[in-house]
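Thread: Modeling a multi-component assembly for a lab meeting

Hi all, long-time lurker, first post. My supervisor asked me to bring a structural picture of a complex we are working on to next week's group meeting, and I have zero experience with this. I have the sequence lines for every component (267 residues in total). Could someone generate the structure of the whole assembly? Inputs are pasted exactly as I received them:
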Amino acid sequence: MGSIEQRFTLLVPSSTENLALIRDFVSNVGLQAGLGEDDVAKLELAVDEACTNVIEHAHRGDLSKDVVVRATFDERTLRVEVVDTGEGFDPATQPQENLEQMVAKHRSGGLGLRVMKSLMDEVSYEIVPGDTNRLRMVKKLRKEV
Amino acid sequence: MPHPFAVHRLQEGDLSVLSLDGYLDAHTAPHFERAIQDEIDAGRVRLVVDGAQLKYISSAGLGVFMSFIEEVREKGGDIKICSLVPKVRQIFDILGFQAIYDMVESRDEAVRRFVDVPTREV
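Re: Modeling a multi-component assembly
Sure thing. I ran the full set together rather than chain by chain. Output:
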C-alpha cells in the first residue's frame, strides 16, 4: 500500500438519526487505516461530537442540509474533515469553564469540543460565513517501524 | 438506523435505579432526559444510574447528567453513577465528572453510598 493516500466520503442528511451511520463509517475507515480498537472508539466519538455540533448548532435541525464527512489516510496520519453549509458555529468561541461552573449556570455547551480535543491529536476550524465551514481533526497513526 | 438505546427502571426501596442500555448520543439523549424528568416529577430524587450495559456515550448524554444534578440535590437527592465499562468511564473522566458525581464500581456500592452521602453540594 505504501504511502498512497486513501480517501472516503460520506454525505448524509443533517439529522441526529444519522449519527450511528456516521460512527460506523469512521469506525470502518479507522480500522482500515490500522487504528487499534481504543483509537477507533476515540475517533468515532470525536467525529460524533463534530457532527452533532453541525446538526444541532450550525444547521439547527434543518433536514434539507447535508453533513459531509471526509476521511483521508496515508501511512502516517488519519485526517477527518466535517463540512457544513450552516451558520459557522465555532465551538471554540464557547466560554471555557470548569464543570462546576457549567452546572451552576445550567450550561453544557462546549463539552463536545473538550472531548474532541482530548481524543484527537489536532482539531482546527475554517469558517467562511455564508459559505462552507470545515472542522478538521487529525489522528496520528502509530505504525510499527 | 440509529443505534439502540433503552432505559430500564427499577425501584429499590426509596431509590430509583435507571439502567442505561445501548448507545447514548444526541439522538437518544432526549429519551434519557425524559426518564430522569419522570422521576423528578414523581418526587423521586434518589437516583442510581447503572451503566453496566451502556456501550457508548457522547457529550449529549453527559449533558443530561449535568442538567439535572442541581435540581435533584436541591430537593435532597442525588444521582450516583455505577458500573460504567472502562471505555465509557474514560469519557466521564476526561470531562472531570468525578469532581461532581459519585461514581462507583457496582450498584450495591451506589446504594451504600446513598446511606453515607445522601446528597452533595453542587
